Structure formats: structure tokens, C-alpha cells
Amino acid sequence: MEENNPWTILESRKVYENNWIGLTEHQVLNPSGGKGIYGEVHFKNYAIGILPLDDELNTWLVGQYRFPMKAYSWEIPEGGGPLDTDPLDSAKRELAEETGIIATQWEEIQRMHLSNSVSDELAIIYIARGLTMGEAEPEETEQLQIRKLPFESAYQMVLNGEITDSMSVAAILKTKIILQENPFNVTTALYE
After folding, report:
1. pLDDT tens digits, residue range 37-80?
2. Taking burial as the number of CB atoms within 10 A of a residue's CB, which of 1, 49, 52, 95 is the most buried?
């Protein structure tokens, strides 16, 4: 398949913008030549996710009410990181804010686009090791519950559909594969 853009943009206008997102409506010719509209959401931050993992293979989940879903959600610690900031610095900040955990070992395990048919949001996911516990300092918009549990329990929550957040599902499944490939030396498996 050719990688050239088959869409023609005839006109674009900003429909909405705030500190986090911008929405643009494009008048387009689609790949077949038909006229139409295409809405595009531009994210002003990276989506950052962190799976903390201690030496006993415990992890931490964050529970919170998600306004757009109108439902409660259990997730890995996650948040936004400015596009002009090193994503690892944002990951360290988010983990400390949401859980109070400070980590000395970090490994990026996944980059993924969260909804590439309508947005340009890029997610970057890390495993954090070498953990020290501190006090969480969530933002004023966050009312969080922190839950420590065995990694295997989090994995079962994904399989049972109890965790549906895409970054959390990807992080937990990818970590499961990493651990299965080298079950006897987790540090080597994660940091080779």
C-alpha cells in the first residue's frame, strides 16, 4: 500500500480549543474523490502511563471516576506530559503525584496511538522499578484511590474486563509477555 496521503484538504477551521486539546473541522475530498468533513482532535500533551513493579511483582493501580465515560475506572498511574518536555520527566512526576512512588529504574515499553481515526494523541508507557514509597499529591481535579496488588491480579483484571483503559491494558499485557519470556530474572528481562 502506498504511504502517500490520499485525502485532499479543501478548507480547515478551528472549532474549539482549550489548554489540553484543539478540534479542527476539515472540508475534504476523501480517497474516492467525494466531498466530506473530517474532525481532528489535536492533543497538546503526550499521554503518559507507568506500571510500577516491585521486587515481589506487586503493582499499583489508581481508581478514579472518568467524566467522559460516566464510570469508575481502575488504571495504571497515568497523565499528561507537555510535548516540549522529556516524556520520562513527565512519567516520574505523574507516578509521584498519583501514588507517592519514586522509582530509580525506568524502561519505556510501548508507544501507541490511542484513537488514530480522530486524534493525534501519542501514548508512551513505562515500567518503573526500584521503588520507594512517599506521599501522593494528586491534582485538584483528581479524587484517587490507590490499590497495591500482585501483578498477576492486575493481569486477571484485564482478562476479566475489569480494566478497560487502553494504556493500562497495553501496559499490563506487554509486561506479562516480558515476564513470561524471562521469569527467573525480572530485572534482566526488563532492562536488557
Report:
1. 999 999 999 999 999 999 999 999 999 888 888 889 999 999 99
2. 95
CA 76 to CA 44: how far, in whole Å?
21
Q: Can you give the pLDDT at residue 176?
A: 96
- CB count within 10 Å of CB 93 equals 15
Cα angle 94-79-46, degrees, rounded to a multiple of 5: 110
Of the pLDDT bands very low, low, confident and very high (cuts 50, 70, 90), residue 4 is confident
Residue 48 neighbours by CB distance under 10 Å: 26
Residue 180: C-alpha distances to residues 59, 65, 141, 167, 183 (Å): 16, 32, 37, 20, 5
* Whole-prediction pTM: 0.87
Alpha-carbon torsion angle 99, 102, 107, 110, nearest 10: 20
Tell me if 61 sits within 8 A of 20, measured CB to CB: no
Please give the Cα distance from 65 to 51 (Å, whole number): 20
Cα–chain center distance at 69:
16
**Three cell numbers at 137?**
499529591
Task: State yes or no: pLDDT of 129 exceeds 60.
Answer: yes
